[in-house]
C-alpha cells in the first residue's frame, strides 16, 4: 500500500476513499450452548484507494466477499478491523449519530431493485425521504428536487406517485439511482447494479451511471461479476478471491496482461464471440471448489486451485505489493526477490 | 375495490345458506330432545303434545325453511321496528322462539351481547396492546434474553388452555390472596369511583386470562412478520439513507410488518362476539358463550341454530374485511 500512496500523492487527483486492512468477519455459533467457534472471513484484510472521479471495478466470483466489502465500506455492516477514510474522515469506528450525518457523502445502489425499495412507499417518498431527513428543505423545494432527480435518471415525472411494483426492473433501478443521488453524494458503491436486469437494459443503466458520473463528478466503486461490463466502465480493477484482493491494476493492463494466476483463469473464462477464436481459446479451467471462507487454507488462499502452485504457497500468505508501477499483486510467482521463507518450513517441504 | 366487495358479498349469500343448512342438520340430527330437561312426572302424552306444539315433529326441511324465513325476513323486520319505530312488524309476525325460555332468541342474544363484548372485547384489546410491543422488541433483539423469555411465555400462553389458567388464577388471586372476586357480577352498575374499583377488580381476572392467550398468539405473528421484514433489502436502503434507527424500525419495518398482523387481528374479531365459551363459564360471565353452552345442553335448537348462524355471518364478514384491509394497506394488492 505504501507504494500506491507514494505514487498517487504526486498525481492531480486526491484520494477520496482509503481502505486499509479492512476485515469483516461473521461469527459462527455452534453447539448446545451456542459458543463462538469460528468466523466466516468474508473480507479478510482488504486495502485499496479510490481517487476522486474514478471508477474502481471490484470483480470476483460469487461468494468471494465483493458485496460484503462494499457494504462494510459504507458501514452498513460493522467492520471487524481496519480503517476506512472517506473524504479524509475516518468512518470505521465513528459513533452512530456522526455516521448518520456523513451518510449524504456516501451512497449505495443496490443489486436487487425490487427488494431494495420499500413496497409501501411511492417513488416520490422513496427519493424524498433522505431530503427531509438531511437537507431541511421545504416541502415544495423537496418536490422540485425530486422532479429534478427523476429527470436526471430519465424517469417520467408523472410516475412520482406510483409504487415500485408498478415499474419494470430497469425503471426500478433508475429509482434506486435517483434515491442514491438525492443528497449530492461524492462516493457511490454500485453493488452489482445491473446483475438483476435484462441485457438490453444493462447497457442503458451503465450508460446512465457514466453520464451521471460526468455530470456530478461522482466516484464509483463498481462491484460486478460481469468482466466485460467492468472493462467498459472501470478505470482500475481489483480482483477478489476468498475475501482478499489478489490483483489491482489499471483496466488496460489487467485485461491485456493479467499477472495473478486467478485473474488469468477468470479472464480466460470470458466468452469469446468469434467462433474461430472461441474454438482455439486456451482456457485455464480451475479444478475444485472455492474453499469455505470459515476455514481458508493455510498460506495463499488460492493455493488449493492454483495451476502453478509452489510449496511456499501452502506455507506463507503472499504479501499484496506493487510489482510494477500501479500494479499490485499478491502472488509468490512474482516475488523476484529471494523468498523470505522460514528455513525450517522449506526443509520440511 | 367496491365492485370486488359487492361481488364478495353476493358470493357470501350461497355460502351462508349452505352453512346454515349444515348447522341445522347437525343440530337437528343429534340425539337431543327439547323435553328431556322437563320433570319426569310429566306423562308421555303431554310430552308428545309439547313436542307437537314446538313443531319438532315436522319434516326437517319444513323446519329448516320455517327457520330461514323467520331469520332472514321476520327478525330483520323486528330489528328495523326496534330501531326506527316504524310499524313494519305487526304483532302477528312470529319470531324465532327459544324452546327453553319461550322468549325470542334475538332478545336473549341482545341481553347477553354487552357482557360478552365488554369482557371479551377488552381482553382482545389488552392482548393486542401487550402483544405488539413484545413482538416488535423480540424481533429486533432476536435471541436476546427478552426474546427468549417472550418466546417461553407465549408458548406457555399458547399451550395451556384457558380453563386451566382461569382456575389457576381463581385459586391464587381469589381464594388464597383474596384480591379479586372469582365470579363476574353482570348486574353491577358503575356509578361512582368505588363501584368503578369493584368493576375493575371483577373484570381483571377474565380479561387477563383471555388477554394473555390472545397476546401470545398475536405477539408470535408480530415477531415473525417483523423478522421477515428486518432482513429485507429495503431496510438496508433505509439505513443507507442515514435515517435514525427509530425511523428505520418504526416507519419502514413496522408499517410493512403490520399488514399480515392487522389481517390476523381482523380475522379473530368474530371470536370476540362469539365470546369465550369456556372462560365465560369459568368466571360465570353470562354472555353469548354461556348462552350457547346452556342451549346445547337442553337441546334448544332455535337458539343454537341462530347463535351459530350469527357467528357464521360474522366470520364471513370479517374474512371479507381482512381481504379488503390487505388491499388498502398493501399497494401491491389491487382487486379489480
UniProtKB/TrEMBL annotation, chain B:
Membrane topology: Multi-pass membrane protein
GO CC field: plasma membrane
InterPro entries: BPD_transp_1_N (IPR045621), MetI-like (IPR000515), MetI-like_sf (IPR035906)
Alphabetized Pfam families for the sequence: BPD_transp_1 (PF00528), BPD_transp_1_N (PF19300)
A GO BP entry: transmembrane transport
Gene3D superfamilies (alphabetical): MetI-like
PANTHER family: DIPEPTIDE TRANSPORT SYSTEM PERMEASE PROTEIN DPPB-RELATED
Stated name of the protein: ABC transporter permease
Amino acid at each position: 500500500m505504501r507504494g500506491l500512496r507514494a505514487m498517487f500523492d504526486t498525481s492531480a487527483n486526491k484520494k477520496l476513499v482509503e481502505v486499509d486492512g479492512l476485515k469483516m468477519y461473521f461469527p459462527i455459533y455452534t453447539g448446545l450452548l451456542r459458543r463462538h467457534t469460528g468466523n466466516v472471513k468474508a473480507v479478510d484484510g482488504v486495502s485499496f484507494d479510490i481517487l476522486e472521479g474514478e471508477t474502481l471495478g471490484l470483480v470476483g466470483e460469487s461468494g468471494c466477499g465483493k458485496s460484503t466489502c462494499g457494504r462494510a465500506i459504507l458501514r452498513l455492516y460493522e467492520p471487524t478491523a481496519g480503517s476506512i477514510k472517506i473524504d479524509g474522515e475516518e468512518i470505521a469506528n465513528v459513533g452512530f449519530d456522526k455516521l448518520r450525518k456523513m451518510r449524504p457523502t456516501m451512497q449505495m445502489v443496490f443489486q436487487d431493485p425490487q427488494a431494495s425499495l420499500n413496497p409501501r412507499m411511492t417513488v416520490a417518498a422513496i427519493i424524498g425521504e433522505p431530503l427531509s431527513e438531511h437537507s431541511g428543505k421545504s416541502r415544495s423545494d423537496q418536490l422540485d428536487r425530486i422532479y429534478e432527480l427523476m429527470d436526471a435518471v430519465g424517469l417520467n415525472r408523472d410516475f412520482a406517485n406510483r409504487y415500485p411494483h408498478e415499474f419494470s426492473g430497469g425503471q426500478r433501478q433508475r429509482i434506486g439511482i435517483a434515491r442514491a443521488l438525492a443528497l449530492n453524494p461524492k462516493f457511490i458503491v454500485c453493488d452489482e447494479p445491473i446483475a438483476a436486469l435484462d441485457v438490453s437494459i444493462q447497457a442503458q443503466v451503465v450508460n446512465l451511471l457514466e453520464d451521471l458520473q460526468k455530470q456530478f463528478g461522482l466516484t464509483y466503486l463498481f462491484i460486478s461479476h460481469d468482466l466485460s461490463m467492468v472493462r467498459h466502465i472501470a478505470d482500475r480493477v481489483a480482483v477478489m478471491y476468498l475475501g482478499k484482493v489478489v490483483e489491482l491494476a489499471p483496466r488496460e493492463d489487467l485485461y491485456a496482461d493479467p499477472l495473478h494466476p486467478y485473474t488469468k483463469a477468470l479472464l480466460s473464462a470470458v466468452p469469446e464471440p468469434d467462433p474461430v477464436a472461441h474454438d482455439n481459446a486456451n482456457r485455464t479451467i480451475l479444478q475444485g471448489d472455492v474453499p469455505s471462507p470459515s476455514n481458508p487454507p493455510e498460506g495463499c488462499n488460492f493455493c488449493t486451485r492454483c495451476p502453478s502452485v509452489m510449496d511456499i504457497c501452502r506455507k506463507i500468505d503472499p504479501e499484496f505489493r506493487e510489482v510494477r508501477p500501479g500494479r499490485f499483486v499478491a502472488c509468490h510467482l512474482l516475488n523476484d526477490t529471494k523468498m523470505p521463507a522460514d528455513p525450517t518450513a522449506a526443509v520440511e517441504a | 375495490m367496491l365492485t370486488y366487495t359487492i361481488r364478495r358479498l353476493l358470493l357470501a349469500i350461497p355460502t351462508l345458506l349452505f352453512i346454515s343448512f349444515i348447522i341445522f342438520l347437525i343440530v337437528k340430527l343429534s340425539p337431543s330432545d327439547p323435553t328431556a330437561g322437563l320433570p319426569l312426572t310429566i306423562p308421555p302424552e303431554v310430552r308428545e303434545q309439547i313436542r307437537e306444539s314446538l313443531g319438532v315433529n315436522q319434516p326437517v326441511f319444513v323446519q329448516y325453511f320455517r327457520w330461514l324465513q323467520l331469520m332472514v325476513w321476520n327478525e330483520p323486520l323486528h330489528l328495523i321496528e326496534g330501531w326506527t319505530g316504524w310499524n313494519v312488524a305487526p304483532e302477528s309476525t312470529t319470531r324465532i322462539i327459544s324452546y327453553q325460555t319461550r322468549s325470542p332468541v334475538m332478545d336473549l342474544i341482545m341481553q347477553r351481547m354487552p357482557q360478552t363484548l365488554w369482557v371479551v372485547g377488552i381482553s382482545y384489546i389488552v392482548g393486542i396492546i401487550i402483544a405488539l410491543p413484545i413482538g416488535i422488541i423480540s424481533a429486533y433483539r432476536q435471541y436476546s434474553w427478552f426474546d427468549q423469555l417472550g418466546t417461553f411465555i407465549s408458548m406457555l400462553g399458547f399451550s395451556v388452555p384457558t380453563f386451566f389458567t382461569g382456575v389457576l388464577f381463581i385459586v391464587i388471586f381469589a381464594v388464597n390472596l383474596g384480591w379479586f372476586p372469582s365470579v363476574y357480577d353482570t348486574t353491577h352498575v358503575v356509578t361512582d369511583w368505588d363501584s368503578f374499583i369493584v368493576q375493575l377488580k371483577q373484570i381483571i381476572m377474565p380479561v387477563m386470562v383471555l388477554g394473555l392467550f390472545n397476546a401470545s398468539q398475536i405477539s408470535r405473528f408480530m415477531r415473525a412478520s417483523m423478522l421477515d421484514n428486518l432482513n429485507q433489502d429495503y431496510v438496508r436502503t433505509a439505513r443507507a439513507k442515514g435515517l435514525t434507527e427509530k425511523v428505520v424500525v418504526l416507519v419502514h419495518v413496522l408499517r410493512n410488518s403490520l399488514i399480515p398482523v392487522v389481517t390476523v387481528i381482523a380475522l379473530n374479531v368474530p371470536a370476540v362476539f362469539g365470546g369465550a365459551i369456556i372462560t365465560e363459564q369459568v368466571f360465570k360471565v353470562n354472555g353469548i358463550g354461556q348462552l350457547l353452552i346452556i342451549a346445547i345442553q337442553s337441546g334448544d335448537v332455535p337458539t343454537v341454530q341462530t347463535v351459530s348462524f350469527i357467528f357464521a355471518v360474522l366470520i364471513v364478514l370479517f374474512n371479507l374485511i381482512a381481504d379488503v384491509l390487505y388491499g388498502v394497506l398493501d399497494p401491491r394488492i389491487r382487486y379489480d
